[in-house]
TrEMBL record:
It comes from Sphingobium indicum (strain DSM 16412 / CCM 7286 / MTCC 6364 / B90A). Coiled coil: none annotated. It holds the Pfam family GST_C. It comes from the Bacteria. Residues 1-80 form the GST N-terminal domain. Keywords: Transferase. Belongs to the GST superfamily. InterPro entries: Glutathione-S-Trfase_C-like, Glutathione-S-Trfase_C_sf, Glutathione_S-Trfase, Glutathione_S-Trfase_N, GST_C, Thioredoxin-like_sf. This is Glutathione S-transferase. Gene3D superfamilies: 1.20.1050.10, Glutaredoxin. The keyword Lipoprotein does not apply. The keyword Acyltransferase does not apply.
Length: 208
């Protein structure tokens, strides 16, 4: 049995939706980041990095969305949830890496300025600079996605729930009225919400 450790609405939502898409039996355990549950001794024994997601596979624990999404896809090869060879495989990895290392990081100055500056004034400056950077990243994403309908073109892949996480974040109240129009990303998010795997994961996390 697989066991996913998650926090509602965090980047672990991508792995949560992927498990639903794969149709694999799994358990889900809440790690409440608002209560610093990620720093508990019990959880740090499973994931010393004290982050979500983590996926327990028997006696092993896998961390990081890119690794977890790839493993889930490999468990159900008949569903072709990620390309397996050639340029198509490289393109999927390119997107996953972009989402993890560039897009995710772009939200940090907005959501957690205290990690980047100590004073209130410094945090305000970090958030302002970060907002400009985030707007550029999202605008480029909107352009690159185009009409989709999916990240890799005409076929759904596990890149899609990962991108959905960040569009979901972009529509949080803290960013309301601060971003430029993102028509392609918003249309993409609506398509994702209509997908049973995404809606199921959102419902289980209390976000539907």
């Amino acid at each position: 049995m697989l066991k996913l450790y998650y926090n509602p609405g965090s980047c672990s939502l991508a792995s949560h939706a992927a498990l639903e898409e794969a149709g694999l039996p799994y358990e889900a355990e809440l790690i409440d980041l608002t209560q610093n549950a990620q720093f508990s001794d019990a959880y740090r024994q499973k994931n010393p990095w004290a982050r979500v997601p983590a996926l327990q596979i028997g006696d092993d624990v896998l961390t990081e969305n890119i690794a977890i999404l790839n493993h889930i896809a490999e468990l159900v090869p008949e569903k072709a949830l990620l390309p397996t060879e050639g340029l198509a495989r490289a393109r999927a990895l390119e997107w996953l890496a972009l989402l993890s290392s560039t897009v995710h990081v772009a939200f940090r100055p907005i959501f957690r300025p205290g990690r980047l500056a100590e004073t209130a004034e410094g945090q305000k400056d970090v958030a302002a600079t970060g907002l400009n950077s985030l707007k550029s990243v999202l605008a480029l994403l909107d352009e690159r996605l185009g009409k989709g309908p999916y990240v890799l073109g005409d076929k759904f892949s596990l890149c899609d729930p990962y991108l959905f996480v960040f569009v979901f974040w972009a529509r949080r109240p803290i960013l309301e009225g601060k971003l430029d129009p993102l028509p392609n990303l918003d249309a993409f998010a609506e398509r994702m919400r209509a997908r049973p795997s995404i809606s199921a994961a959102l419902a289980q996390e209390g976000l539907a």
